[in-house]
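Example 3.2
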Amino acid sequence: MINTTYVHPNQNVAARLKPKTQNTQPENFLDDKQTIYSNKTASIYNDKDLTHTSWFYINDLHGKMTKMERIYKITQDFDNSSPSKLWKFFSNSDDSRISKFKVAPGDIFIGANPKNNKVASEFVKWCKFDAISPGNHEFDVPDASNLNQLLANTKSKILTANITVKDNSPLKNRFEKSTIIERNGEKYGLIGISPSDMMSRVKINGSLSDISVLNVEDTIKAVQEEINKLKSQGINKIILLSHSGLSNDKKISRETNGLDIVFSAHTHELVEGIKEDKNLVYSKSGEPVVLTQAGKNGDYVGVLNIDFDKDGVIRRAQNNIIFTDNYCRPLYVKDPVEQIIGKPEVVGKVGEAVPLPKNILIEDNPHGNLIVDAMRSELNTDIAILNAGNIRGCFTSGSKVDSRLLADISPFEDKMMVLNLSEKQIIDAIKFGLEKSFSSKGNKPGILLVSGMKYKCTNKGQLLSAEFVDKNGISHPIDINNPSENKKYTVAADDFFATGGDNYLPANPNPDFILKTLDFDKNKMACDYIKKLDQPIDIKYDGRIEIIDG
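Structure, written as tokens:
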């Protein structure tokens, strides 16, 4: 695909799509493969007959503060730029007739750390997003009152049509099902939805206990109800902010009438350009619906340019993906962030580091292995276990390691526990992670990273062998077909895993195998562990998880 680039208003090129191989000099031009009805529109419609819009979007940022700093800069450039000069898509239009919007379909927050979530809340406010829809990780905030305050602070519309809130909850009046925004004399209806699998994606806490979420089929009905309400008010341009996943969003688009754009999230897919069936589908009445999603962790953001006709039907569209690391972290936003979280503590340095695996959910991950090794060492247990989905960043060769980096790599503020698990419980949990992750779309919930163990499996999710590695480095094979219910191990894990999060273990808020609960997260142990090493750390593969073709 030919890259369409994003250009600073006062520079030649300051940001561009991440090249597939190496940096090349980009050009700013329209790629016809990224448009629909482009030739027909040019020949049939005059510019004055079209409504021009430009939509800045992010999704699944997962509390990445360094990315927030860069993205804030991009939003400022988006706000201050001339669309007709920036995009050839609008080259025949007048800037005064091009309406701009900024939207975010969820997972801007992550984890329970109040300072980190305060930064995320401030980020949304700084960027002046028109609307956001809450994803699952917004509900990591454990207290409903705190979540309500954080969402109120964003000054954005918080949209979700498929969540019901308890009457006595502080969140009772926080969410709207839809809203109407007027720009340049045109009205736009925005609807939001949250993930139907919310309850299996978040640790049970006060915020989550205050809500219920509709299943996918009932969510489709709820979306259609909001579409009908908006259409009854004369709104013919309707946009969905969805944290439901791209596959579900295609289903919603095809089984409703009236949607035009779906800003998708939750499945972390990077959707480039516009392609039939991939992210251009048709509603029940045959009108086009454009969907898009910008990956995860703030690595990319997007700008979707759309032209509507007088009936609110999309006649031209162009989807642009922007690589955020081509932007700097400006001091004027870096400093306010550190005023909230404090100056990071430097705890060590990296020697050599292998790249982050392409798919962290179903691959051995040396970056996560350091964290799980710290858990085992600092809690002095036989074994340590960590869901691969906990790891959201990486170490870099030659770089310093500070407390902020570790919070970026492992952002969930779960309490640590020491468990007394049987061999069978451990093997069953590993098997569940393998079978579920290799077979599910999106590879969720992720395999289990381990310390004090090794295991071998196929890329179809079948466990082939496992062994316990004691503190003297001696391996003890485990019979994976008949693991012992009587042989016990002390295991370092977080409370999400221990209480049945993601179903590795049976769901139970107070299981009888908990030996100790600690009032800190794995990041503290990683900091302490790296300090004690007192030398540059190497991040490399050691063969503890071997995945072969099956």
